[in-house]
Design brief:
The chain is 41% helix and 12% strand. The chain has a 5-stranded parallel sheet with strand order 2-3-4-1-5, sandwiched between helices. The longest helix has 15 residues. Helix 5 crosses helix 6. It is an alpha/beta fold and 225 residues long. It contains 9 helices and 5 strands; from the N terminus they run αααβαααβαβαβαβ.
């Protein structure tokens, strides 16, 4: 049992953000541009928050069974956000920075406080018995429509809960990528969420649903728009 725990601990400690599959920023955008979210954004990203955590499960394993897969009800799901929404990319980027802990780092108050926060997050990663909290950072990034990215996505294994954002993909290539992940998702030990920003969300949503991919069409509530 001690050896099993040691292997799991080392594997988790060695895990890194998969920069081959995900980019922190879209091409042409600065990767380190993190701003405090506005009150409007905090209210508007509620649909994204609810969808991301739907079926995420506790993320924990029994204390005395470290090799048992963490509890995840829905390992993979997709959502489509209409590209003609002029606030889409700014809102989604702000939500991603919220979800990945960037806003926590921004509010930490100095380099030493940031280091303590990073160490605390890594320590929690290795606590297999700990239940996931809403404030736990996810891995978030953009999946680009490029051959090398598609190859990395085909072998992707999440190190923690993950949000992938796809912008400007051809529909057929996107469906192929989502179907490939759908096939490997039953082995995921953390939830993975694909957020697609695309015109004609109803068409894509219907196509993915017909193929068995859990998918939702998201948009701002009328009262918040």
């Amino acid at each position: 049992m001690a050896e099993v725990r040691r292997r799991r601990l080392l594997s988790t400690l060695r895990a890194r953000f998969d920069g081959a599959a995900l980019q922190v920023a879209l091409p042409g955008q600065p990767a380190n541009a993190v701003r405090k979210p506005s009150a409007t954004q905090l209210a508007q990203w509620a649909p994204l928050q609810a969808w991301s955590f739907e079926g995420a499960g506790t993320g924990s394993s029994p204390l005395l069974r470290p090799t048992q897969a963490p509890q995840v009800e829905l390992p993979f799901s997709a959502a489509v956000w209409p590209a003609d929404d002029p606030t889409a990319l700014d809102l989604i980027d702000a939500f991603s920075r919220h979800l990945d802990g960037s806003h926590q780092l921004l509010a930490a108050g100095g380099a030493l406080a940031e280091l303590r926060l990073r160490l605390r997050v890594k320590a929690r990663d290795v606590m297999w018995w700990r239940r996931r909290q809403a404030s736990d950072p996810w891995d978030c990034g953009y999946a680009l429509d490029a051959p090398e990215t598609r190859a990395a996505l085909a072998r992707f294994e999440p190190r923690r809960a993950t949000l992938m954002v796809a912008v400007g993909w051809p529909e057929d290539a996107l469906v192929d990528a989502l179907m490939a992940i759908q096939k490997t998702a039953p082995q995921f030990t953390h939830p993975v969420r694909w957020l697609v920003v695309q015109n004609g969300p109803e068409i894509l949503t219907g196509r993915l649903s017909a193929l068995g991919v859990p998918v939702k069409a998201l948009q701002l509530r009328a009262a918040e728009a």
